[in-house]
Design brief:
The chain has 2 domains: 173 residues, Sandwich (Jelly Rolls); 54 residues, no CATH class. The protein contains 6 helices and 11 strands. A hairpin with a 2-residue loop joins strand 2 and strand 3. Helix 5 packs across helix 6. The protein is globular and about 45 Å long.
Length: 250
């Protein structure tokens, strides 16, 4: 009998090495949500380009994850179940697809500038599939691509790369043009009954990662204390998420 997988969170594992048995890439791409985005590929791109006429993507907060500041930029519409309602108004078609599929926890548009690298790192949890849909892909491997564990792949426009974000991975764009993808985090069905725990834990982890940028001692704090802080903050993250969405703060 196959054992039910357990949730893993990097915030509780100071080795930062996920030791799961899942393959690095998920080659099945006929998920209903995946097909819905592909069928609306051009309209989604048009929404993004219209938005970019008057708005700029934001640099990812963790500067330690990139080779140069501001080479990795994002535009989020949903982030671990926090709804960016004000921004979603600019993306009606994309937002309708998000609303159709409740398993979608996050969606953002990610820009990687020419020469940019997202350095090797592991994701926050094994409870999701992270999914990349190529929107603007200037080159293929070896110039522009993606690695999960020992496997390298190229992005392709209107094609999915679906992978286990918990494994060590990196991205690079050695071309002279910008690369743009849509990133979707999808809750794995095995963990559907733990949704609130998963999103609240990851939000707490991201909060502490951001604090650690300005409070270096957090990176040296014993794992037992970090675990206690995380467990204490997790209910507040859950409450805050509900309040933010109710107030339509973002």
């Amino acid at each position: 009998m196959q054992l039910k997988p357990k949730t893993w969170f990097s915030i509780f594992d100071f080795s930062f090495i996920y030791k799961g048995s899942e393959p690095p890439f998920i080659d099945k791409t006929d998920f209903p949500w995946a097909l819905a985005f592909q069928e609306n590929f051009e309209r989604i791109k048009n929404e993004l380009f219209e938005y970019l006429k008057t708005h700029q993507p934001e640099a990812y907060f963790n500067k330690a994850m990139v080779n140069e500041t501001s080479t990795w930029k994002t535009i989020s519409l949903k982030w671990w179940d926090i709804e960016f309602k004000k921004r979603q108004k600019f993306f009606p078609i994309t937002t309708k697809i998000i609303q159709r599929f409740p398993e979608i926890l996050s969606l953002s548009f990610n820009h990687l500038e020419a020469g940019g690298k997202i350095l090797p790192h592991c994701g926050d949890t094994n409870a999701i599939y992270r999914c990349h849909l190529g929107l603007v892909v200037p080159e293929s491997l070896p110039q522009c691509g993606f690695r999960v564990l020992d496997e390298h792949r190229s992005w392709k426009e209107n094609e999915w790369l679906i992978f286990m974000d918990a494994y060590n991975h990196e991205a690079f764009n050695k071309s002279d043009k910008e690369r743009i993808i849509m990133v979707v985090d999808v809750l794995r069905p095995e963990f559907s009954n733990q949704r609130n725990k998963i999103t609240s834990t990851v939000l707490t982890s991201l909060f502490l990662q951001k604090r650690a940028m300005y409070l270096p001692f957090l990176a040296k704090t014993p794992s037992s204390i970090i675990k206690g802080i995380t467990l204490g903050l997790r209910p507040l993250a859950a409450l805050g998420k509900s309040i933010v969405n109710w107030l339509k703060f973002y």
